[in-house]
Amino acid sequence: MASVGKIARRTFLIGAAAIAGGVAVGYYYYRKPYPNPLEGDLAADEATFNPYVKIGADNTITIIAPRAEMGQGISTTLAAMVAEELDVDLGQVKVEHGPASYAYYNSAILEEGGPFAFFDESMTAEVVRAGMGVVGKFLALQGTGGSASTRDGFDKMRQAGAAAREMLIAAAAQKLGIAAADLETANGSILHKASGKSLTYGAVAATAATMAPPAEIRLKDKADWKLLGKPQKRIDMLAKVTGAPIFGIDVTLPDMLYGTVKMSPRFWAKPVKADFSNAEKMPGVIKIVPIDTNYGHGFGIIAENTWAAFKAAEAIDTEWADPEYPLDSAGISEVLKQALGAKGSVMRDDGDVDTAFADAPREKIVEADYAVPYLAHATMEPMNATARLKDGVLDIWCGNQAPTLVRQLCANAVGIEQDKVSVHTTFMGGGFGRRVEVDYALCAALMAKETAGRPVKVIWTREEDMRHDAYRPASVGKFQARLGNDGIPVAIDMTIASPSMIASTLRRLFPSISPLGPDKSIVDGAHNQPYTIPNYRVAGVAAPVSIPVGSWRSVGSSINGFFHEGFLDEIAVAGKTDPVELRKKLMAAYPAAVKVVEKVADMAKWGEALPAGKAKGIAFTLSFGSWVGEIVQVADTPSGIRIEKVWIAADVGTALDPDIIEAQLISAAIYGLSAAMGQEITFAGGMVEQSNFHDYDAMRIFQCPAFEVAILENFHKMGGVGEVGTPPAAPALANAIFALTGRRIRTLPLSKEVTFA
């Protein structure tokens, strides 16, 4: 297996044409499975059937759910996929994350990475999707993101459960001397009803594991599901409500040291001078070491306790070099605005936009400029990792979204082979894309080199965390529409400028790779929406600002949902068209979208008169394969604008756990509303100004609205869940504020222009 970096280099250089060719040339290698990582670490009485199932002689059944659990419930849903086909209840199984392994690659995370909309099912789009899936296996990235976990696991994990069940039946048939066709399974046992004989899975597991897996696997029909499609008890709930030590920050090991980091507050800048004298004299401080990685430069402080490390970090007197980007937010904003004048990459170009605007009467033109700020992930659990480097073997304990990246990059950092690194993935108190990054693990690994084999738990202060993120990029957009005589748009022209998330991520993870081609994330959520407009152009420009940016819940759709749906509301007002009716007309070619809009409008009683001082706003987005409509109701109160209620309708194609889906839609909406109301990352002197929740706050409980959610299953392909509620939240709120106040706010956060109760 080549390193991810080398394969990624080839992938970028080969291009889309070679992807399609690779489907044929590499078919044998694509079909060949990766080794089962469970085989080398089994208990004496334990057997494994594939990378997802272990069964002990005592009938202990362990299911591997190899995607990061950060509160979204994925460990429950993935385990239910296996348990469904294995014919066991979730209460009968243990669920583990499993080791870092290529066997747990996520191919679905790349399948929609091409320039095609989710609803585009042309031959070209499908060939590229298939090719990207193949590339996903070759890259073998074990990652949690892109709302891809259920889509990636839906076939793999059900097949794993079904294959194990067939092998267990075959072993039982052999032991009982009864034809396999006469046996059935239930609750972890194989039964022969005619004779009353039965065997537990554990009784035949060892024999079954030696048998060849079935050549063909028949999965249960949806009508026969017992677990999938129904709410399940969360397998992580008991540990969380009882305060069990399940998070990275809870890790405790014998003879453990503690540490923290003090990184350059100016990204990529090195220290000009540093005085450690006061810090080194402080009680409990053991060592201060340099930290130099692709994430930047700074110092690691190793101490006998976390408090001593924190105080020593404060005592280091350091002067940092100037940054390579503008010093303040005004300068950064100017670079973004200038980028709008550059030639962009056109990702959608229907009709002839230039001709459509050439003779447009002034009164038929709608124009607007939009902007959003940088945003931090602000996870409740700050970045942390525990590392131990002993006898040439590195162990790392941390919550992370990409175990194979942690393994590879930490191995490189300390100079050992990847097979000498074990990544122990814990639950995490929030991720939202932040823990796709590996800076926290790299810092811990480098500090473990300095502790003579003792483990070191490295915890970032909240301030360090807030000021050293890979932020949601700031972005600006210029929008223009021409209306027809009926008020319906006949032409739309959109240009969006933003720092490139892809280029920034590659700089941190694989700096030897130069990104080729346009960065789709800049226009994601704008170019691929299911609106039919005769002349429709969307272009993206990569702005040259090198502040680190990365995946933030819903990625580009979080930006362009606000841009696109805010501007569409402006079109509706200018054309004297109801916003719901306008969307239905423009999306008539996509019944799934229309049904979502109709459903959410019906739920919210859209069109009914509201009392004075109340108003509603609507937004719709298609992201990560799910069609989502949200309506926000606001009220004018003496203490400010109050968000009273939010209605959400989401078509996810196939709903595997309605309770988890509902929780995630609400969670994502709150995340988006929080950002829209008051969050922004600003810069002064080349440094982030915000430092903690007092100046980067989220929506509080008393501000949280009531929610009503409807889950639809009309579309024929499964969509994601974890991120899809975020993109419509900000525009629905902004559109509601316009309906209430007549004030059109085109720049976030909204609190710059209105006060929230």
Offer a quick outline of the entry.
Keywords: Membrane, Transmembrane, Transmembrane helix. This protein is of the alpha+beta class and 757 residues long. It is 32% helix and 22% strand.
How would you sum up this structure, described in words?
- With 757 residues, this protein is α+β, with helices and mostly antiparallel strands.
- The protein contains 22 helices and 27 strands.
- The strands form seven sheets. A seven-stranded mixed sheet has the order 10-11-8-18-15-16-17, with helices on both faces. The protein has a five-stranded mixed sheet with strand order 13-21-20-19-14, sandwiched between helices.
- Strand 20 (489-498), helix 17 (501-509) and strand 21 form a beta-alpha-beta unit.
- It is globular and about 85 Å long.
- It starts with a helix and ends in a 16-residue tail after the last helix.
- Mean pLDDT is 95; it is low at 1-29.
- The chain crosses the membrane at residues 12-30.
- This is Xanthine dehydrogenase family protein molybdopterin-binding subunit.
- Keywords: Membrane, Transmembrane, Transmembrane helix.
- Residues 242-324 form the Aldehyde oxidase/xanthine dehydrogenase a/b hammerhead domain.
* Tally of individual helices: 22
Q: What percentage of the residues does DSSP assign to strands (E)?
A: 15-25%
Helix percent band: 25-40%
Q: What is the overall pLDDT average? A: 95
Instruction: Tell me about the largest β-sheet.
Output: 7 strands, mixed
Low-pLDDT residue spans: 1-29
Shape: globular
Strand line-up across the major sheet: 10-11-8-18-15-16-17
Organism: Mesorhizobium onobrychidis
Keywords: Membrane, Transmembrane, Transmembrane helix
InterPro entries: Ald_Oxase/Xan_DH_a/b, AldOxase/xan_DH_MoCoBD1, AldOxase/xan_DH_MoCoBD2, AldOxase/xan_DH_Mopterin-bd_sf, N-heterocyclic_Hydroxylase, OxRdtase_Mopterin-bd_su_IorB
Protein name: Xanthine dehydrogenase family protein molybdopterin-binding subunit
